[in-house]
Structures are given as C-alpha cells and as structure tokens.
Amino acid sequence: MNALNRLAELFGKLPGIGPRQAKRFVYYLLQSPPAMRKEMAELIEGLSKEVRQCELCYRFYTTESSNSKRCAICANEARETESLMVVEKDVDIDAIERSGSYKGLYFVLGGIIPVLESKKGLARTKELLRAVDARKPKEIILALSLTTDGEHTSDQLRELLHPLAEKQSSKLSVLGRGLSTGSELEYADPETIKSALKGRG
Amino acid sequence: MNALNRLAELFGKLPGIGPRQAKRFVYYLLQSPPAMRKEMAELIEGLSKEVRQCELCYRFYTTESSNSKRCAICANEARETESLMVVEKDVDIDAIERSGSYKGLYFVLGGIIPVLESKKGLARTKELLRAVDARKPKEIILALSLTTDGEHTSDQLRELLHPLAEKQSSKLSVLGRGLSTGSELEYADPETIKSALKGRG
Amino acid sequence: MNALNRLAELFGKLPGIGPRQAKRFVYYLLQSPPAMRKEMAELIEGLSKEVRQCELCYRFYTTESSNSKRCAICANEARETESLMVVEKDVDIDAIERSGSYKGLYFVLGGIIPVLESKKGLARTKELLRAVDARKPKEIILALSLTTDGEHTSDQLRELLHPLAEKQSSKLSVLGRGLSTGSELEYADPETIKSALKGRG
Amino acid sequence: MNALNRLAELFGKLPGIGPRQAKRFVYYLLQSPPAMRKEMAELIEGLSKEVRQCELCYRFYTTESSNSKRCAICANEARETESLMVVEKDVDIDAIERSGSYKGLYFVLGGIIPVLESKKGLARTKELLRAVDARKPKEIILALSLTTDGEHTSDQLRELLHPLAEKQSSKLSVLGRGLSTGSELEYADPETIKSALKGRG
Lengths: 201, 201, 201, 201
Hints:
Chain A is of the alpha/beta class.
C-alpha cells in the first residue's frame, strides 16, 4: 500500500470518519503548505512527550498547562476538594467547566459500564474506589450522560460506591433531570416531565 | 383549479406538509377504499359539531368525552384545583398527562408571546389573567418549552401575572431544568449543566 | 375512541405521517375556519364522484379536466400515439410533463414488480400487455426509477413485452442514464459514470 | 495555546470538521498506541518527500507508484493519448477509474471557475491550454460535477478551449446526462428528464 492510501487508512480510524472523508483529508493536506503538515506531524508525535495523564483524575493534560504529576485542576489549590465529580471522558470536563458552576474535582472513568456484561472492563472502577477511599470527598456526583449506557453506568457506580460512601459519610448524588435548553414540552418524555415537575421552582 | 389540485392545496396547509407530499396524500386517498374517504370526510366536517372548547382551560374536547361546557379534566372533581399549569397548546397537555405526575388543572395559552412585538396577540393573556383572578390557585406553573420563544413567553407571563399572584398569594413557578433523557454531557449547554448541578440529588 | 383520536388515526395512514404529526393535523384543523374544514371534507368525499380512472392509461383524472372516459392526455388528439411510456405511478407523469419534452402517451403500471416473488401482483402487467396489443405503439419507453425495485421492474417488463414487441415491431427502450442535475463526480457510482461516458456529446 | 488545543485547531481545518470533532480526534489519538501516532506523524510529514505532482496532469502521486516525473497513468503507455478528460480534483479520477470505462488521459483543474468573478484564479486554465496545445488530443472531455459551480466551469472551459480545439480539430464533449443510479422519476428535475428522454435506448 502506498503512503497516500496508508495515511487515508489511519485517518479512517478517527471517530466518525469514513474512507472517503479520510481520503479527502489526505488530498487537503497535499495541497496545504508544508509548514502546516510539519506542525501537525510534530504535534501528533509530540503528544507522547508533552501529554501526561493526571495521577489523581486520569485526565490528559499537557506539560505546558501543569508541570506536576497532576493536571491543572487537581493541582489548583483553590478547587474545593470536598466534591468529586465522576465523568465518562475528558471532553465532559470541558462541558462542565464551560458552565462555570462547579469548583470541585473530577474523576475520569475513561469509559462506560455497558449493559452487556461481555463488554466490561473499560471503566476505571477500581481506580475510582481507590480515589474515593484516599480522598474521602463529602459528595460524589455521578455525572453520566442520560443515555441507556450512561444511566446503566450510573446505577452500577451507585451500587459499587454505596458501601464505601456510607462508611466515610460521603453523599452520593446524580445530576438533576429536567427540561434542557431547546426542549419542547410536546416531545418531552414522561421521565423528563416528571423530573421537571418535581424540580419546579 | 380542479378538485385534485385544490385538495392538494388544502393538504399543503397542514403543518409540515409541502406541495409534493400534499399531492401524494391526494393520490393515496384516490387509491383508498371509498369507505375510508367517507369516514375521514365526516370526521373532518364533524369537528365543528362534536368538538367544543373548554370554557375554563380553552382546551378542545369532544362531546363524547364530556357533556358539560367543561373538558374532562376541568369537569373531573378529583383534580386538584390549587394548581394551575399554563401550557402553550393542547398537545402539551397530552405530554404532561402521559407522565402521570400532575393532578392539577391547566390553562391553554393558544400561542406564544413572540420576541418581536409585531406578532403579538395570539396568546390568551387576558383570559389567563381572568382565570387566575377567578380561580385563585395556590400555584401557577408556567410550563413553556425551553425554546427562545417559549422562554420569552415565560418571562412575559411572569411579569404579567406577578402583581395578581402577589395579591392573592399564588406562587409562580416554572418547570425544572436539567439533563433530559438522551442528553449527552459532552453536548449539554452551560445553562443546562448549571441547572443540572443545582438540581442534583 | 373519540372523534379526535379516530381522525388522528386516519391521518396517520397517510404516507410519511406518524401518530404525532397526525395529531397535530387534527389540532390544526380544530383551529382552522369551519369553511376550510367543510371544503376539505367535501373534496375528500367528492373524490369518488369527481375522479375517474382513465380506461386507457389508468391514470386518475377529474371529470372537470376531461368529460370522456379518457384522461386529458389520452383524449388529446395532438399527442403522438406512436409512443407509449410506462411509468410506475401518477406523479411520475407530472414529472415527465413538467419537462415538456415528451408528446406521446402513458401507461400507469400502478406499482412495481418487487424483487421478492411473494409481493407480486400490484403492477398492471396484464393490462399493459393488452394496451400494447391494442395500440401497437412504435416505441415503448420503460420509464421506471433507477432504484433496485425500479430496475427489477424494468427488466421484468422487458422480458414480458419482448415477444409481443417483436411481433408488432415495437421498439423497447429505457430512459437514458448519466449524471443527474446536482451529481458530483466524486460520489458517482461506476454504473452512472459508465453511462455518462458512453452518452457524452 | 497548549499543544492539545493547537492540534485541535489544525484538525479543525480539515474539510468538514468542526471544533468539537477536531477535539475528539485529539482525545482519540491520546488514547491510541504511540506507534499509531508515530506512523501517522511520519506519513503526514513524509507527504512532501514522497508525493509529487505529475508534470502532465497535475495529479498527486507517490514516488512508490511511479519513479518518473509523471504519474502512473500518464506514464502508462497503454493509455490512449487521443482522449483528455478534464476533472476538478484528484478524487474525481479515482471515481472514473473505478468505473473501468475510460482508457485515456486526465487533466486535473485543481479547482472550479466560480460564478463570482472575485473568486477566480484557482483553476489551472493556462496550464490546461498549454496541455491541449502540446498534446493535441482528438477529444477533450469536460467531466465536471453537475452542480452550479461545475456547470459554470464547464461553460467557461468550453468557451476558453473552443478556438484552440477548432484549430487543431479536437472534439469538445461533456459527460452525458440522464437518470443516475438511485434516481426516482418523481423527484427528477426537468433538465434530467429531458436528457434521459433524449438519451433513451
């Protein structure tokens, strides 16, 4: 296989990219200035050197943003250590931070606990137990997506964490449900309406 | 214009139907059993006779479902009269009822209060004031969609109802916000995350 | 079931309409002027009286557009009788007529010949054979869609008509293939490109 | 800006990629094996060294696929030199080659001639004139997409090439129009139907 096809093959592994778009990426790069290709290549290869995974929350961070073994959030002494929010993946942290309404710490699960047992093993559940044990947060917020897999993960984590949380008096909570921005009442499902009614104010 | 084109033109006025789909409706009916066409025609024409608008909540109802001047919900003595929920349109009531979590009464606004002044006049605001004045509910729940127009309507209604609500000690509330079923954290907007965090439990 | 729900059920049978949109149609009609509902009802019921099926081409037509037992096209002596175009359904004729480039006659098959034998029987194949036998066109144009079912129907019709066409020296043809308006070369399938190359000029 | 954000920014320049998907690419790479990142980086950077642009048709090719200054197609003596097909971009050649129905040579325009004058300059029109002058093909096939820009480019090229083509007796042709695979008659535009009728057989 020649270089163009092999590169298209690698691009085709990126999330959401099919073989044709992958090929278009290659042709786009071919017509880009060599300096751009050089920078992209260096950044990709540099990920190994410049990017670390936080020893506390398992989030990826660059050595530029933090020099310690901890990411900028975990290393920030102004963050409130009594709250620990469990999210599925790194980008979820970006979404929470954009809201500017959370000042606590995070734990990146790195995957969901799928409904089918056979797929198990991706989520860092042991590491989560260890983190909760070590950090003894006053509140553990399970911040999973409200998808089938996300809700299943939430249920499983609640069961998993319950004994430890009880022992060390940590409160276990989940994000509130209700109408989201853009929701039309007409199309809202019963569960969402129930929560929206309960949470009215 | 011949009958086929005229009927297609009328179907083209139905919400979400373009000229081509309207024409397909006509061809579909042409190939349907005459009995189906007859029943559909009779039901459409019968709407005037068999359907009334509730004098209390302005909801449409059939004379089959209620014999009085009030719809089945307003006529139902088991409903809690201390809550009045304001919705935009009839189908919104269906969505709330499906959730099985509301036992109070409704008021159908019949339209939204658009952001542009020039479009005003659709929502039954005077009738709403009159209904609140007459029924003196302990709580008025504004249950509008979380769209731009819905949120604007909610704000306007709150302002409109505030003096009267204060006078008769009615609580004014809105549906709770948060993550809806299906929401992915990664794509949730800051406002939704803020509410979801506030409403966690 | 009450009148509103029954009407929604009937609307839900129209092509492409789900239960929710059907219900919106009902609410839309409830809020429409009674005169519009009356006209729609009369037009729907009148379809039986005012619409006939052409005895030659099986197309539906209104008695307003033609008084005879034949539709306006079949009754039009200016149309060229030596060409007979076979289409799947009435709306296909509208598309051809919009192009203004065909002056011959039509035959509406009323369905396709599906790939799975078990579904057979919808297309008026016997009537087509009879029409070709009676009208002895110089050319029979098979104008089916280029979908799997359409192409299968085309193949089957070609086989079916071949002996008779040969006997009476009728030419059997199909619509030309090539790039359609909007086609992007990059996404064109090999078959289309092959035809486009062959048909270049 | 740190390395993660800068890489996301560069990925965001790839065709069809927004800032969020660009960020997902970065996180995907972070979790990929270092060997994959290394290979991708080397392939991207290597594009400059291993990829050349054909001096005849302006197509990109790897030094693996051809050692000369010409791409594998231009260097292939079995190709018919009397036909020259003008395409917009490299991937269009892939589509034509997949059809297996063209044995001539190509010329990659490298862009379209946009309807708005102000955007001019991308298409290699001077190089095309020079190529036609030098190679004197018997036929020049304009194989542009049937989009607004593609059709405009086709018209402009025809005008541009006409004097030279006339002088050296080159035939100027365009790809044939008609129904493409998947086309439904009902939705076909008049222009396509006209061509399909003309090209029937």
